[in-house]
Design a protein that fits this description.
- The chain is α+β, with helices and mostly antiparallel strands.
- It has 2 domains: 6-46, Arc Repressor Mutant, subunit A (Orthogonal Bundle), CATH 1.10.10; 66-140, Alpha-Beta Plaits, CATH 3.30.70.920.
- The chain is 35% helix and 20% strand.
- It is built from 5 helices and 4 strands.
- It has helices spanning 6-17, 23-30, 34-46, 79-89, 116-125; strands at 66-74, 95-100, 107-113, 133-140.
- It has a 4-stranded antiparallel beta sheet.
- α2 (23-30) packs across α3 (34-46).
- The longest helix has 13 residues, at 34-46.
- The chain is elongated, with a radius of gyration of 20 Å.
């Protein structure tokens, strides 16, 4: 994995499972000194392997129980139009993820809302108001079978 040794990989696995682990706890689990772990984590951050350390919330407890995947097709595909869409859509707090896609649609958005009324407001007053929107097709999550944030290493 691009210059990562076993210790780096194990640190990443532990932090993906529980980012609240202290350097002391990681050092105990990996049988390394606290200073070594501290330096390794700093290096992993500096090299861009660790981009953020966050808390993952229960979306239902924070009133974001409705998840939609919205496929967006733009009417114009110039570089300027694509960049403008990206620049504007990331400003919407409802948009959790935005991916430019190959295939029939240009982008797919993961949108988190409290309910259908909030999604309708988002769609009508934010997303559909962006320039060059041709088609939006949304799919709503009925059940969540797996939701993981950890990459297999």
């Amino acid at each position: 994995m691009n210059g990562l040794d076993r210790t780096d990989t194990e640190i990443l696995k532990l932090l993906q499972a529980d980012a609240s682990l202290t350097n002391k706890e990681i050092s105990f689990k990996l049988h390394k000194s606290i200073a070594t772990i501290h330096e390794r984590i700093r290096k992993l951050k500096d090299q861009g392997y660790i981009t953020k350390i966050v808390a993952i919330l229960d979306r239902k407890k924070v009133n974001k129980g409705l998840i939609a995947f919205s496929q967006v097709h733009l009417s114009d595909h110039t570089t300027a139009t694509l960049k403008e869409f990206e620049k504007e859509v990331v400003k919407f707090p409802e948009v959790m993820e935005c991916f430019q896609m190959s295939g029939a649609f240009d982008f797919i958005l993961r949108v988190a809302c409290s309910d259908m009324n909030e999604y309708t407001d988002f769609y009508r007053n934010k997303l559909a108001m962006l320039p060059n929107i041709n088609t939006v097709q949304s799919f709503f999550v009925l059940a969540e079978t797996k939701s993981d944030t950890a990459y297999p290493l």
